[in-house]
Amino acid sequence: MLHHLTPFLLHWAITALSLWVASYIFHGLRFADTSSLIVSALLLGFANAIVKPLLIVLTLPLTLLTFGLFLLVINALMILLVSSLVRGFTVSGFWTAFFASIFIAVLSFVLGSFVIDTEPVLINQMPRSGLWL
Q1: Total of domains in the chain
Q2: pTM of the predicted structure, to 2 decimals
Q3: What domain range includes position 97?
Q4: What string of pLDDT tens digits covers the 133 residues of the chain?
Q5: Going by DSSP bridges, is the β-strand pair 89-91/29-31 parallel, antiparallel, or unpaired?
Q6: Is residue 122 part of a domain?
Q7: Is 40 a member of any domain?
């Protein structure tokens, strides 16, 4: 069971670190304390896993019309949603959330590529004898 918990904790830590760095770069993004940062990172992960796919499906025609650029708006909306739910996490406006979401996504991707070790997927080969059992 712990082998499933480790990647989750790593993703959570990377998201929290990305949010923390973004709060120093974007002046409209503020955390009152460390607990609001940690809760925001956890809630942002859950929002991206549950709410974001629903929004993508609901706005699919608009996303296709804008060649996928509307996904950046959905990312900003996820940050605004989390900031409205977590006490101590404030975002000054939509454009701050928009550019911060781009920065957080890029930084999380870069940090994740260095930290998270993915094992290659082994593909089962067909048996040479002709028996599949």
Answers
A1: 1
A2: 0.81
A3: 2-115
A4: 677 788 888 889 999 999 999 999 999 999 999 999 999 999 999 999 999 999 999 999 999 999 999 999 999 999 999 999 999 999 999 999 999 999 999 999 999 888 766 565 556 665 566 555 5
A5: antiparallel
A6: no
A7: yes
